[in-house]
Fold this protein.
Amino acid sequence: MNAVANLAELTSLNQERRLIEAAQHDPGRFAELYENNFHRVYAFVARRVNSRDEAQDVTAEVFHQALKNIGRFQWRGVPFAAWLLRIAANALADRWQRAARGVEVPADEARIENEAGPADAAEVERRAMLFQLVDRLPADQRLVIMRRFVDQKSVREIAQELGRSEGAVKQLQFRALETLRSQVRNRHE
Amino acid sequence: MSNLSVYDELDQAIDQMLQPQLAQKRRDPGAPPQTDEGNIRELVELARNLRDLPGANFQTRLRLELEWEAAGRAVSVPTEADGHRDGQPAAKAAQGATQILPSLFGKSWIGYPVRRINFVASVGIHAVMACLVGAGFLMVKNAVPGVDRQTSVTVRLEPYRARIGSHPNSGGGSGGAAEKNKASTGAAPRAAREQLTPPIVVEQKQRPKLAAEATVIAPPDLAFPRTRQIGDPLSMLTAPSNGPGVGNGMGGNAGGGVGTEGGPGRGNGRGGGCCEGTYEIGNGVSMPRAIYAPEPEFSEEARKLKHQGDVTLLALIGADGRPRNLTIVRSLGMGLDEKALETVRTWRFDPARKDGRPVAVQMNIIVNFRLY
């Protein structure tokens, strides 16, 4: 099993390397790297900031910087996500330093706090996977999840918007969460 | 336990997670305890992570921004330097960052990134369109010589005929007082278009009460040599005599002129006119043909006042084809006479011919100025 996993990981790394080289020659190909790593970067940032807006701002900043500096990226056999998370950690550290103003926060200390440890990395991967799975839910279930957790609307409000009964909305909510749970379990097994 | 109660329990748990205080108030104190607590707790734990889900269109919008940037277009992303501090939403900060020409100098427009090249292209296209429209107006204004289209100038050539009564002009005249001698020599009388008094050398005893100058009928611009004594310039006799003709004048015929054949003119022809060197068109004398005849222009004054009509010019067309002695026979005024004279003076003719030889003739040139 380990050999198969290692082979799959090696294949994935090779594909990623080709994508990086393609993006270095043609920035238009950066979109594929973006799609592959968006949820990972967002999950990493969202764990470290207080609001969704701020998480989105930092995520956007990370990818713009990555696109700008993709030409300077050197392949060393490390996943591209590691480079993106390093950019994200630096962006967060800079942001906190500016926000602190009068309070002196050593740059190195701030960066150490932002570095992803093994446990943190696993949690980031889990959340990124969860966010990706939400995108793959049936349309009505996904809509209920987005309204309930992103817009934080009540079941009654969602029911009025969709023109359905509150019971139907609660049922969609339940099924969506159960689907997500089963898919997360399947991915871990 | 029905499924509906599981849905309700899950929803209440989610409410409590999202808004703990509100959910606590709503909770019914008499409600039964949750029957599937482990399952519900697991789902709520999963739902807890969903609170951090990105906005519905954020991923797509960011991808679009990156594609624009990758394509070399200017895309600005709101940053802290644009005023996003202390947890303020970046999009709102960027929205208010630029008040003047946000499409050109701003970072974003209601959350959408600014593409300055579009603004510049739009301005450029509008400028080009404005220039085209302006040029169109200018060209139409300058290209339509509206007044010229409303004017027409035509020219007609006619032989000159100085008609006196029913006698056709042949360039000569005669007369006399029934004397024995031929008319005596002297200068021809003044040429005029009408004759009030025929020339006489020997005056009658009965003088007229209202004297008029003696003239012969010929183009008025012809200047004969003038001496104190009038007479027939072709005669060799010096003794004063009006000649053997009748009807006043001088010569051997009748008609009041000076010469031999009769008529009121001067010379050896008939009927009126002058001089053997100028021929009348017809009877073997061809009509001159204009070979270079630019059209006269309308005068500005006549154009403005819509004045139109004919100007008749009398011209002597020489054997060399050049018009000479141009005189206005019928005037139109308002500068049109001058325009006609000025232009006809530049004309060139294939001269009239008699027996294949170029000869000088007189002719009328009628210039018709017409407005439409």
